[in-house]
Amino acid sequence: MASCSYVIVGGGVAAVSCVEELRAMDDKARIIVVSSSQLIKTVVNQQKIGQLTELFDIAEQQVTSVFAGLNVTFVKATVTHWDWKNKELLLDNDERITYDKLCIATGGRPKANFQHALSISIRDTETVDRLRTRIKDAKRVLVIGNGGIATEIVHELKNIEIIWAIRHSSISATFFDEGAAEFFKPMLVHGWRKEKSNNTVPKRYRFTVENEGESGVVGCALGPEWASTADISGALSVYYIFYISYPSSLIYMRLWTQARQMGAYCGRAMVLGDAISLDFCFEMFTHVTSFFGFKVIFLGRFNGEGVEKPFRILLRITKDTEYVKLIVANGRIQGAVLVGETDLEETIENLILNQIDISQVEEGLLDPDIEVADYFD
């Protein structure tokens, strides 16, 4: 029977981030990581594009490489039983591990309602590899779903007939309103073109949302990293993890949030307990991904959820080039959706964080001939 101070179950970004933070804060404690695969996911090519906004890739690497120099014990196994009262895990190799504190970062399971040999529920790298194998000789694919994974599959599949079945009135509704969906719709037919037309003229709109009936804004649950290998590629990872007591402060479980940030936060919580305070990164929601070949950035309350009504929506749309949406309440920006190379992310992030009053410049804020940052120097 193995015994340790900390056990982390899982092999994703959250688990790796938790391990790294634990070791940074406690260089002597014994740490055991349990995962069913020796390939684990980690963050690479990290690039800051704002105070909080970051762009990075997810890569699968050998556990020996990721944990090199961290003095971490890795166990390739699956947990078959959890005795939380006695703080003990039973593994499928009959090994038992006792611990002082436990972090569960195993991820969720898709709701697979279709039990058929020809049905594949896409969730992670393994299921994408399965899809790649199965479509080699296929002539037609039915894609069911309207979230990020479905959107990327529809965009990336080539040389095959695609039927996209959705229950909403517009595509990608879990991420975008109907306006953004219209911006992306031509990409379904013609694909993304790197060369843009010189005749595109930005169009600006402004309207007010006063009640739910008038709102075209849809809520969003951001999906996980799911495929960066093979011949189809997907969105970057976004998870919601939060540590909770279950039923004491010795067990830390992950729910949905950004994996890297919350994995690190979970590690600090395991060491510091109640003494921990929220990190600055939780001041505002940020997420960077890509759809249909465009960089897409979500900032703050980008879908209008939780924003006091009435609020204004400012739009700037340049066909095949960019889509900019700002949500403004009481003269202050509450959220934004930025599609394309807008160069607005850092300025808009600062305006949301600092809640600067833009009432005097709101009319011309999205004028393409005016540098937004110049307003706030």
Please give a handful of descriptors for the protein shown.
17 strands, 6-stranded antiparallel β-sheet, 7-stranded mixed β-sheet, FAD/NAD(P)-binding domain, alpha/beta, 8 helices, globular, 377 residues
Give a short summary of the structure:
This protein is α/β, with parallel strands linked by helices.
Could you characterize the architecture of this molecule?
Keywords: FAD, Flavoprotein, Oxidoreductase. It holds the Pfam family Pyr_redox_2. Belongs to the class-I pyridine nucleotide-disulfide oxidoreductase family. PYROXD1 subfamily. This is Pyridine nucleotide-disulfide oxidoreductase domain-containing protein 1. Residues 291-355 form the NADH-rubredoxin oxidoreductase C-terminal domain. The structure is a single chain. The chain is of the alpha/beta class and 377 residues long. It has a domain at 2-109 and 235-282: FAD/NAD(P)-binding domain (3-Layer(bba) Sandwich), CATH 3.50.50. Helix content is 20%, strand content 30%. The protein is built from 8 helices and 17 strands. The protein has helices spanning 13-25, 63-66, 125-134, 148-156, 178-190, 259-272, 345-354, 372-375, and strands at 2-9, 31-35, 39-48, 54-62, 72-76, 79-83, 88-91, 96-104, 140-144, 161-165, 203-209, 251-253, 286-291, 294-300, 311-318, 322-329, 332-339. Strands 1, 2, 5, 6, 7, 8 and 12 form a 7-stranded mixed beta sheet that branches. Strands 11-15-16-17-14-13 form a 6-stranded antiparallel beta sheet. A two-stranded antiparallel sheet has the order 3-4. The radius of gyration is 23 Å and the shape is globular. Residues 213-249 and 252-257 have low confidence and may be disordered.
